[in-house]
Amino acid sequence: MTLKNILAPIAGDMQRVDDVIRARLSSEVVLINEIAGYIVNAGGKRLRPALVLLAGRALGSRTAEPELLAATIEFIHTATLLHDDVVDESGLRRGLKTANAVWGNAGAVLSGDFLYSRAFQMMVDTGRMAVMKVMADTTNAIAEGEVLQLMNAGDPEVTEERYLRVIELKTARLFEAGCRLGAIAADQPQAVQDAIGLYGHKLGMAFQMVDDLLDYIADPSVSGKNLGTDLAEGKPTLPLIHAMRQGNPEQAALIRQAIELGQVEKLQEVLETVESTGAVPYTRALAERYSREAISALSEVPDSPYKKALIELAGYNTSRAS
Fold this sequence. Notes:
Blueprint: H1 3-6, H2 11-24, H3 30-40, H4 47-58, H5 65-88, E1 92-93, E2 96-97, H6 99-103, H7 105-126, H8 129-152, H9 160-185, H10 190-217, H11 220-223, H12 229-232, H13 238-246, H14 249-261, H15 267-276, H16 279-296, H17 305-319
Antiparallel strand pairs: 1-2
Helix pairs in contact: 2-5, 3-7, 4-5, 4-9, 4-17, 5-7, 5-8, 5-9, 7-8, 8-9, 9-10, 10-16, 13-14, 13-15, 13-16, 14-15, 16-17
């Protein structure tokens, strides 16, 4: 099952979201148009806007409001990518040069600021305080997660609990927000917003775990980034945390030093340690558990092609690490 097939029920909606994105990207400042357009049009799965649409349609919305909210979510996500790449000094994303590599850090950061502010202008257009509340809380959580990740960089003492907290803030909360916005657009009560939000939260946790695992097992020609990118940045993700916890003293020392120094030149030894300590199946199994919990959160959502897509999306995510 391909992602395109899964998202077929909202194919028309996604096209209209693209139209909204192009219209709302417009600025009299040429550089903003160039940078924002470059990153938004660079590809990607567009999972976050898809979640807004699927949740909204599954819960009964038949208006254009989910399309506006989906574009808003994509602007927020794109802004975080622009800022992330500057912080991480990244030069490649999705197989293309990052915006900061092309236009410099200042242009990338300021264009990210433009996207954030434009997103909040779009939220105001909905006239819904609930939307503003969800996204204000979410963007604040993302910022906290980014700072925590920065604090964790190069620290081999990071525990699994600390790792999970980071991915909850920087990834899961935006997935959750997308689902909540869909429920708000469908005029659903708080209990339903909470249930569909839980689906998004659990899916976001699983998604980030799989992404972190792919840094050690993926084919770069498919993933668009080189193996060991997280290692080079000193990020203690779950595969490394587990490998250090389960490895012998020599293996633990290898991982510890690689995290402290960002020793990508030790990548092959690290990959062998990750493999031999069972870190791959451990991370995959935890991601699968979160995916099952995500699906369980949909139990009260009426059956429809949109609910079916939400369920299939959880399975698709974990299949990326197969």
